[in-house]
Amino acid sequence: MEEERKYESGTGLDAHFKLAALFPDVPQEELTVEIEEFQREYPDVELETLCTDTQFVLFARGKTLDLTTIYGDYLTFCEAVERKLTEKYRARTNRATGSGSARTSASSAGLTDAQNLFLSEWNREHPEYAMTAKEYAAALKG
After folding, report:
1. Are 34 and 68 in contact (CB under 8 A)?
2. What angle do CA 124, 77, 47 make, to 5 degrees?
3. What is the sign of the dihedral through the CA atoms of 90, 94, 97 and 102?
4. By 3-state DSSP, what share of the chain in percent is helix, strand and coil, each rounded to 5?
5. Coil, helix or strand for 19?
């Protein structure tokens, strides 16, 4: 019974076993060293949470690099994907709200991210009443 309690979630051993399953070709001693190195490099990341992140598990599966390098590559990959999605969203928003004339950027009008998001949604839902960021900022002040 006590043996079963040792392997419960929250002890750190659960994460170790999940990582061992994720990297079956890595010897246990080497995996332990990699976990310690990972925890020094990323002290705010909980391994148990990381082991339940399905995107990380898919990204890491089959990799032969050390855990710290894989996680660093994963973060870089996620940032690149987020940047591309943001660019794509902005391009679509600019096309959807444009009337053929150039629109001023939201940052030049002094809008917050939340205000910019609201403006984008408004312009998408009400193209007949589409506003530039400058017009929206003036309406907020007025």
Report:
1. yes
2. 115
3. positive
4. 70, 0, 30
5. helix
List, for residues 110-138, the tens digit of each pLDDT value.
788 888 888 888 888 888 878 888 888 88
Inter-residue long-range contacts of 90-97, CB under 8 Å, 24+ positions, other chains counted: 93/120, 93/123, 93/124, 96/123, 96/124, 96/127, 97/123, 97/124, 97/127, 97/130
pTM: 0.55
Helix (H, G, I), strand (E, B) or coil at 102: coil
Which H or E run contains 80? Answer: helix 67-97
- The region of weakest confidence among 34-43, 55-64, 103-112 is 103-112
What's the rounded Cα separation, in Å, for the pair 115 and 111?
A: 6
The confidence band for 142, taking pLDDT boundaries of 50, 70 and 90, is: low
Q: Is the pLDDT of residue 3 over 50?
A: no
Q: Are 38 and 73 in contact (CB under 8 A)?
A: no
Alpha carbon of 112 to those of 83, 90, 95, 142: distances in Å?
A: 18, 15, 21, 17
